[in-house]
Amino acid sequence: MARKPTLSPSRITTFLACPSKYLWTYVDPRGKWYLRAKSYYSFGTTLHKVLERFHDEGDQGVTTVGDALRIYEESWIDAGFASAEEMQEAYGEGKEIVQSVVNDAIAKREEGVKTLAVEKLLKADLGPFELIGRVDRLDERADGTIEIIDYKSGRSSVTESQVRDDLAMACYQLLAKRLFPDRAVMATIHALRVNEKASASLSPHDLEVFEADIKQIGQTILSASVDDYSPRPKPLCEGCDFLALCKKDPRFE
User: Fold this and answer.
1) Which residues contact 154 (CB under 8 A, 6 or more apart)?
2) How many domains does the chain have?
3) What's the sign of the alpha-carbon dihedral 147, 152, 156, 161?
4) Does a structural domain hold residue 236?
5) CA 176 to CA 179: how far, in whole Å?
């Protein structure tokens, strides 16, 4: 039996933003030769690794700010930076973020809050495809509410409405609700640069409507034809790894 296709928030948002980028990222293997290392990805991956270790209740080796800074140094990724100076500036900024976030987490640790998982892969069968999503952290709050925490290393602010309107956060809530059907579920984005958080929760009706929308979008992605992937100029073309590929297509005009 053939495996059911899988779609993730990143795949879905990529297709909605640019079907051509989806093609080169996930469908046509030629695209991988055009991918370049990104400094923001290296920076974010490093911070995620530190917080994964710190919040993993099974990892007793990272419990203090000093431990977290040690893991930061060990985990640092230097790929994608334009110069050594740019990398050093980012390294210093990341170190300050780790100190601030971990200090705050230790000082404000809430009674009754338990981390259930870090870097947890959630799945749900949505009929023609399987929806998957990897959450940075999954907490159980004192009242039994399941909280999904998503770290954002590039944001300088975050609001409740942004969390509510975020496709990935809605996907995570849908997936978490499948795993914990009798629990309330909430989503939180943690903007690491400013150490600020915002949370939102979709109602059962909102989740039902969202699930129907995602199924429809998924069907569109899975049934996409060659013409659907036709490259068309748009603002996000500037700086895209695949611009050279799209320019080779006579339809790109």
Assistant:
1) 40, 44, 193
2) 1
3) negative
4) no
5) 5
Report d(CA 199, CA 203) in Å as an integer: 13
pLDDT at 250 over 90: no
The yes-or-no verdict on residue 229 having pLDDT over 70 is yes
Three-class SS of residue 123? strand
Could you tell me the pTM of the whole model? 0.94
Retrieve residue 126's tokens. 């949505």
What tokens does 157 get? 């602010």
Q: Which pLDDT band, with edges at 50, 70 and 90, does 1 fall under?
A: low
Q: Taking Cα atoms as reference points, which of 196, 32, 179 lies closest to residue 104?
A: 196
- pLDDT in the model for residue 59: 76
CATH number at residue 186: 3.90.320
Which H/E stretch holds residue 140? strand 130-140
Using alpha carbons, select from 19, 13, 6, 4 the residue that is nearest to residue 237.
Answer: 19
pLDDT value at 51 more than 70:
yes
Radius of gyration for the alpha carbons in the chain, expressed in angstroms and rounded: 20
Does residue 253 carry a pLDDT above 80?
Answer: no
Return the bridge partners of 139, or none: 115, 147
Q: Which two tokens stand for residue 248?
A: 């080779």
Does residue 94 fall inside a structural domain? yes
Cα→Cα distances 101→151, 156, 172, Å? 11, 14, 23
Q: Which residues contact 47 (CB under 8 A, 6 or more apart)?
A: 72, 94, 97, 98, 151, 153, 192
Backbone φ, ψ for residue 146 (5° rounding) = -90, 125
The DSSP element (H or E) to which 185 belongs, if any, is: strand 185-191
Q: Domain range for residue 34?
A: 18-221+242-247
